[in-house]
Amino acid sequence: MVTTILWFRRDLRLSDHPALIEATRAARGGGSVVPVFCLDERLWNPAGANRRAFLVGCLRALDADSGGHLIIRAGDPVRVLPALAEEVGAAEVFVSADFAPYGAARDRAVETALAAAGRSLRRVGSPFAVDPGTVRSGSGEPYKVFTPYSKAWAAHGWPRPRPATASVPWAARVPTDGIPLVPVSGARLPEPGEAAAKRAARRFWDIHLDRYDEQRNDPGADATSRLSPYLKWGCLHPRQLLHKLGAATAERAFRSELCWREFYADVLHHRPETARQAFASRMAGIEVDGRGTAPRFDAWREGRTGYPIVDAGMRQLVAEGWMHNRVRMLVASFLVKDLHLDWTRGARHFMQHLVDGDLASNQHGWQWVAGTGTDAAPFFRIFNPVTQGERFDPRGTYVRRWVPELAAVPDRYVHHPWDDPNGPPAGYHAPMVDHAEEREEALRRYAVVRRL
Predict the structure, then answer these.
(1) Cα distances (angstroms) measured from residue 206 to each of 56, 176, 209, 214, 219
(2) Which end of the chain, N or C, is surrounded by fewer C-beta atoms within 10 Å?
(3) Do 240 and 337 touch, CB atoms closer than 8 A?
(4) Contact at 8 Å (CB) between 101 and 42?
(5) pLDDT tens per residue across span 68-110
(6) Do the Cβ atoms of 417 and 409 come closer than 8 Å?
(7) Which class does domain 281-451 fall in?
(8) Distance in angstroms (rounded) separating the CA atoms of residues 94 and 231
(9) DSSP code per residue over 11-42
(10) Strand pairing partners for 121?
(11) CB-based contact 45:82 (threshold 8 Å)
(12) How far, rounded to the nearest angstrom, does the alpha carbon of residue 102 sit from its chain's CA centroid?
């Protein structure tokens, strides 16, 4: 009888799980599969309460789905996995490949430790439709621009998703450290787990997909998929979404959004330093404010800037651990180009709150806005928070939802309440900066690095 280990990470589901399929196949002749999740302090401690709470919920759901057989072991995976393999007599540990900087290095160390004891780490599948590093340009170089990457990504394609493995022989009576208590987050988080992910996907398909291209930039409509937390933890695999999409305009738009996630993972795979440093080295030298900026940063993160759509976004982030993508760009632009603060400060704040916090997508999304990244928006594209609000939230639906002080302000003035003849509502802050002046200052700083 053969015992195998399935090491769960960002693949907390049972359907369309290649590593689970192979682990089950290897446990032939009456063998068993030991499902384990390792609570790694290197990943657990930096995660905010929202991401930890959602993860614990997903682990509880996975444990229930596997008949209560999920094993939790706390500690360094380089020590934990070889010890568990010795304990249960497993010669192979099956995993979904990890391409992130820390994850890839950790897996190499685990592989070495297992090999020293005559055991092996088997990478089967990954959290991506197309693994990072798979597609390259005609010259063999990694892609630096999204559009050509997306064409190569689509041309490469992906296999059809596979159903859940029937009758997995889960191992019984393996000691476990137990699933942690759910951390208190204070945010309204989505329901965790694979079944909840599938329900959320069906709701999106039934209600919003047909008009996704029209409504995805309207934060008041709340018409985006809201599937990013489930993709982050692998409660859904992107294959399960992609194979249902056709050629309609709205479906192409949603496919493109899934591709952006994979593009940024590819970028981080090839350039791991860009998690903390500018992709475009020239832009690393742009002047940013440092000393004495804590009050400005606090006003931004607490939603007290005096610009309604910026404040709405920052308050949504705290309340839901999530923010509409269009608004993510607006609040990022405000921090970098109106307040002249380093993008990494904003990126860290997002990662502390986002339930869907993904290192590659978050860091490179911020770099796109800051003009420091691959495929970046030109630095001189500086979002005006008033005109952007008027364009994408014309009736102030989103703003009023998150900034109730503005509930009675007429639509005409809801994005610039200081112009209301009746005056701004009591309790709402005046604009902390003059956007036109700060735009000119941002362009002045950009002109300096352009001459370098």
Answers:
(1) 29, 40, 7, 16, 19
(2) C
(3) no
(4) no
(5) 999 999 999 999 999 999 999 999 999 999 999 999 999 999 9
(6) yes
(7) mainly alpha
(8) 20
(9) ---SSS-HHHHHHHHHSTTT-EEEEEEEE-HH
(10) 93
(11) no
(12) 16
Largest pairwise CA distance in the chain: 81
CATH superfamily of 3-126: HUPs (3.40.50.620)
Top CATH class, 127-162+195-270: mainly alpha
Q: How far is the C-alpha of 356 from the C-alpha of 366, rounded, in Å? A: 15
Listed in order, the ranges of the chain carrying CATH 1.10.579.10 are: 281-451
Give the tens place of pLDDT for each residue, 284-328. 999 999 999 999 999 999 999 999 999 999 999 999 999 999 999
Task: Report yes or no: 280 and 269 within 8 Å, Cβ to Cβ.
Answer: no
Q: Where in the chain is the domain with CATH 3.40.50.620?
A: 3-126
pLDDT band at 378 (very low <50, low <70, confident <90, very high): confident
Retrieve residue 298's tokens: 């606090």
Locate tokens 């993510």: which residue? 328
Distances (CA, A) of 311 to 30, 266, 382, 443: 59, 32, 17, 24
Could you give the dihedral angle defined by the CA atoms of residues 13, 19, 269 and 111, in that order, rounded to the nearest 10 degrees?
A: 130
Strands in 71-74's sheet, in edge-to-edge order, are: 71-74, 32-39, 3-8, 92-95, 120-123
Q: CA dist 46 to 95, 124, 163, 423, Å? A: 23, 27, 34, 43
End-to-end CA distance of the chain: 66
